[in-house]
Structure formats: C-alpha cells, structure tokens
Amino acid sequence: MTIETRAVETPAIETPAIRTPAAANGLALETRGLCKSFGALTVADQINFRLERGARQALIGPNGAGKTTFVELVTGGLRPSAGQIVIDGADVTDLPQAVRVKRGLARTFQITALFRRLTTLENVTLAIAERDGVAGGLIRPAGRHNRVIEEAFALLETLGLADDALRPVSALAYGRQRLVEIAVALGLSPKVLLLDEPAAGVPSGESGLIIEVIERLPPDIAVLIIEHDMDLVFRLARRITVLVQGRILVEGPPDAIAADPQVRQVYLGEREHGRGGR
Amino acid sequence: MATEGLVRPRLKPAPRAPLAPQQAIDAFARRHRYRWWEALPWAAAIAAYVLFPSYLPLGAQILATILFALSADLVLGYAGIVTLGHAAFFGTGAYTAGILAVHGWGEPITGLLAGTATAALIGFVSGWIVLRTTGLTLLMQTLVVATLLYEAANKASWLTGGDDGLQGMEVWPIFGQFRFDMFGRTGYLYCLAVLFLCWLFARHIVYSPFGRSLTGIRENVRRMHAIGAPVRRRRLIIYTIAAGLAGTAGALIAQTTGFVGLSFLNLERSGGVLIMLIIGGVGRLYGAFIGVPLYMIAQNRFSEIEPVYWYFWIGLLMVLVVVFARGGILGLSERLRR
Q1: B55 in contact with A at a CB cutoff of 8 Å?
Q2: Cα-Cα-Cα-Cα dihedral sign, residues A118, A119, A122, A126
Q3: Mutate which: B227, B234, B282, B334, vs A, most A CBs within 10 A
C-alpha cells in the first residue's frame, strides 16, 4: 500500500540516455567463479553472483567478508585471480575501469569521494561530460557546454539538491554530500549502480533522505547495495546476498534471509560490530 | 504512518528563490569570461618597460620565468602532478634553441618553436614512463629524468659546451627586422609577446572541459577513475603541453641572454620555480605573475645589499608564506576579500 502511494507521489528519477538492453539473459551483472587471493589469503572464493536488470539487491556480510574486495573486482580496481565478470552480457574481466564505466557500471564510495572544492553542479557536470565523451575537449570552454550543464542541474533538481548547486561540496551537510555521491554516479546514466554503504556516517535523522532517493531510482537501473545497516537493507532490497569469508553463504528474498539459521548465526547474531568491510 | 514523512520529498521551504537552470548556466559561463584585473599584469609589464629602461634584461628574464612557472602551475596546480624535474624541459628548450643558434640557425621564432617541440617530445616520452606512478615515487622519477638530462648535457660537451656552457650564440633579428639590442628592449618585448600568447593558450586549456577534468584529477583521482575518465592519458597530455611551454621559456632565456649552461637543468632550477609559484599561489593561473617578479626582484635587490646572505631573506619570505599565507599571496588575498 505504502509502496504504491510512494510510486505515485514521487515519480522515479529520470536519467536520460539510458541505453537499451542488448543481452538476452536479462542479467545486468554476473560473476562466474570469481576468485581473488593475496598469497595464502583468499578474499574471494568462487563467487557466482547474478544481478538482474532493474534489481534491488543487497550484498551483506560481516566485517572482512570480502564485500569491498568484491566491489573492487567488479569495478576494475583489482584484478581477479580467476573467474569472469560480465556486464550486460559482455565479458569485461580484462577491461580497465574506464571501459567498464562506459559499459554502464557506476559506483559510489563508502567514504565520500567527491571533488570537494568544486561546486555540487560541477561535480555532476564532470561525470556527465565524461559519459558524453566531451570531457577531453580543448576547443570550446566548459562553460559553453550548455546541454551538459542543463542536464546536471536537472539531475540535482530531482534529487532536491538544486539550491546547493553553486556551493562547494565541502560546504554541504554530510547527508547531502552522500546524495551528491549518488548524483555523480547517476550522471553516468548507469545500467548497474553499486552503492557502497550509501548511508555510512550519516546521522540517523538524515538517512531517510538517502533511502527515499534510492527508492526513487529509475526502475531499469540494477542497484546493488553493499551495506551494514540492516534496517536500510530490509527496507530497500528485494533480494539479499550474504557473503561470508569470501563466499556466498546464501541468497534469497529478505524474509528468507532473516529466517535463515546460518545467517542468524554468522551475521545477525553478532549485531554490534564496527563499520566498514575492508 | 512512520513512513509518512518519506512519502513527500523533504524539501524545506526555500529561504531564497530557488535557482533557475539559467542561473546555473550563467554561473558556469561567467567563469571563462575575461575580468578587468586580468589586464593588470600586462599593464604592469608595459609600465615597467617605460619606467625602468635600465632593468629590461632582468625584466625579460622575469617574463620568461613567469612562463616557466605558469607551465609548472599547469602540471602541479591543475593536474596535481608533483614534480621536481621541471627544469628538464626548460633546459631542453634552452639547449635546443642555443645549439641551433651556435650552429648557424639564429632565426628566433623557429628556434623557439624547435625548443618547444623538443621539450614537449622529452615531456611526452618521460611522462609516458614516469606518470605510471604517483606521489613520492613520481617525485623521485621526475628528479631522475632531470638528473639524467643534466649528466647527459655535462658529458656531451662537444655539443653543449659541458661545464662551460654553450657559447657564441648568434640570434638573428626577429622577423629579420628587430635586432636584439644591448639595452634589452627587443628581448623584453619579445618575451612579453610570447608570454602573452602562451598565457592565452594556458588560460584556454584551464577553462576547457579538459582543464576542468584535470582539476577533477587533482581533487579526487579515485572518483575520476570511477566516472570513467582516462586519467593517465589526460595527465600525459598536460604533462606534454607543460613541458613544451617550459621549453619555450628556456628557449626565450637562451635567445635573450645568449647563454645556456648546466644550471638550466639542475635541481635548483626545478625547485626554484616551485618556490616562486608557491609564493604567488598554486593552481590559480596568476600565481606565476605574482610570485616570479616578487622573488626575482627580491633576489636582485637582496643580492646587491647582502651578496652572501640573500638566500636567508628568500628563506624567511618562504617561511612567512607557508605559515601565514597558505595558497600563496593570491590565496591570502582571496581570504581577505571574503
């Protein structure tokens, strides 16, 4: 009931130029037998992960489960020891990060990674210019790329950030900086969006703002939330993957995960642990 | 019920009228427009030409060194590449123009362009190797490149004059018309004209999307990777451009002073230009225009008053800037205006 009302009252955020899906199997992101080890330490062990188009999925796991490693492997920050990474039907295992982004993979950071001294608008503008392939241009001044600026501003408006557009990001409240994190990623018009602890460090009073934005993300984007905050996970995810010691322990809908005795033992049982999955 | 607050977007009533898209576009467009104070350095340079006719040789060196510092600003201030080897390109440009002039090709404009091109080539090749690294490793590698060139110039004394420097340069009149005179008038105006053109070029780069993406690389390289920017290629492009401009600066000094020596390639040259830039303000495009004249005039004055201890005063100036004026003199003036 509430879900329906929400859909009516706040329409989904629109990002233009979303490319039409090409692959047949309906998977936005897939890893096959993904392994990563540092010497004797195995941090990713035969991970077969699937994220469907338009999915709202969460990846959870206790500290040191390998969540951040998984994100780095998928985005291209780390090279896997074995296995494959497939984005939208195309194998990207050997492709650099920039190319994966062009294929539609965007991410946000657990610890805010923005262009702090630049304005909110320019943060998003840089991403859109990069997506459109005009960011290397030397001829026309950046201030004359009106289409890029207009699109960036429109995106900020839908996220309720328009009034902060011309302020440097560093002057924004942390909760709003977390929104800019998402805005920069959305500027890339992704097919797959990895949200690495989107509400990390945000005072609980402000996290509603972030949850609301995630709920309004365009339905055709596949969203994977890497999260510690169980409330957030159970509110947003329609499917949950539990990672323990570099392996997928179980995967399923939220109520099944919540009821799973294994999960309760390794994860939900030990509630109060520190933040961060590094 | 509890979710009621989340149903509506949580927009507080705006204290001021909400920004319109056009305002955002205007704010962007305003940035690359010329402002009145940008004419100040040029007015000052022309005034100096009239007022201090006996200091024109020093003035020409200052102008060329401003170009050198400006090129360092592109690398350090915009792309965030920390380098201790920028003299490599300055020296390359100077030796190229100098060697041409010694061996019978004294035409200044082509000599200048040759210096620029050679320095850019060295910048591209060395950048292709050293820009794979960052931080301290990169710093050391830039230092290594400059040191290698220094030793190469030292060894190849048949070409460079080695320790004695390159002597007997003969620079022809500019456009076959304007002879380099002993008062340094032609040299000064030549340097001024070249600096002006290079400044226009650098300014255009800084305000282009490419320049903005460099700022992005400086501000947060991880995020630039995450939005799909070809970070290494962009760094290499600006490194090459800046190397070329440093080469132009070196060639200017070679042609106007008629001398090139090993000191054009040494660490002191690389470090000195950074100090001048830091005094003026890094990453602001105009830091070079303030820091270089201040440093070089102070150096000139102090060395006359106290030939032995003048470095003490430079050191003191540097300490004051670091303690009281982070961001250099321009940074200080920005803070005072707020």
Answers
A1: no
A2: positive
A3: B227
Nearest to B70 by CA among B331, B282, B325: B282
B228 touches chain A (CB under 8 A): yes
CB-CB neighbors (< 8 A) of A116 in chain B: 219-220
β-sheet bridge partners, residue A250: A242
Mean pLDDT, chain B, integer: 90
What pLDDT, on a 0 to 100 scale, did the predictor assign at position A16?
52
State the sign of the Cα–Cα–Cα–Cα dihedral A52, A58, A60, A65: positive
Classify A2-256 by CATH class: alpha beta
CA dihedral for A62, A68, A71, A72, sign (positive or negative): negative
Cβ–Cβ below 8 Å for A116 and B14: no
Closest CA to A60 of A208, A262, A209: A262
Q: Which two tokens stand for residue A92?
A: 């990207």
Is B227 an interface residue toward A (CB < 8 Å)? yes
Contact A141 B204 (CB under 8 A): yes
ipTM of the complex: 0.85
Pairing mode, strands A222-226 and A41-52: unpaired
Task: Please state the domain extents for chain B.
Answer: 53-265+280-285
**Using a CB-CB distance cutoff of 8 angstroms, which residues of chain A are in contact with residue B210?**
135-138
Taking CA atoms, what residue in B is nearest to A72?
Answer: B226
Q: What is the mean pLDDT of residues B178-186?
A: 88
Residue B292 CB burial class (10 angstroms; 0-12, 13-18, ≥19): buried
Contact with chain A for residue B205, Cβ under 8 A: yes
Over its C-alpha atoms, chain A yields an Rg (Å, rounded) of: 19
The C-alpha atoms of residue A39 and residue B133 are separated, in whole angstroms, by: 24
B25 reaches A (C-beta below 8 A)? yes
Contact between B32 and A106 using a beta-carbon 8 Å cutoff = no
Q: What sign does the dihedral B259-B262-B265-B269 (CA atoms) show?
A: negative
Mutate to test the interface with A, among B11, B26, B28, B207 (most CBs of A within 10 A): B28
pLDDT tens profile A77-134? 999 999 999 999 999 999 999 999 999 999 999 999 999 999 999 999 999 999 999 9
Distances (CA, A) of A265 to A57, A234, A271: 21, 18, 10
pLDDT tier at B4, thresholds 50, 70, 90: very low
- Mean pLDDT of the region B1-5: 39
Q: Is A3 helix (H, G, I), strand (E, B) or coil?
A: helix
Tell me which residues of chain A have a pLDDT lower than 70: 1-25, 267-278
Residues of chain A contacting residue B32, judged by C-beta atoms under 8 Å apart: 141-144
Q: Is the Cβ pair A137, B210 closer than 8 Å? A: yes
Instruction: Give the contacts of B20 (CB within 8 A, at least 6 positions apart).
Output: none
Report d(CA A33, CA A78) in Å as an integer. Answer: 15
Do the Cβ atoms of B228 and A98 come within 8 Å?
Answer: yes
Q: Which residues of chain B neighbour A101 with C-beta distances below 8 Å?
A: 226-228
Structural domain boundaries of chain A? 2-256
CA within 13 Å, CB half, A137: 19
Picking from A244, A210, A230, A184, the residue whose alpha carbon sits closest to that of residue A15 is A184
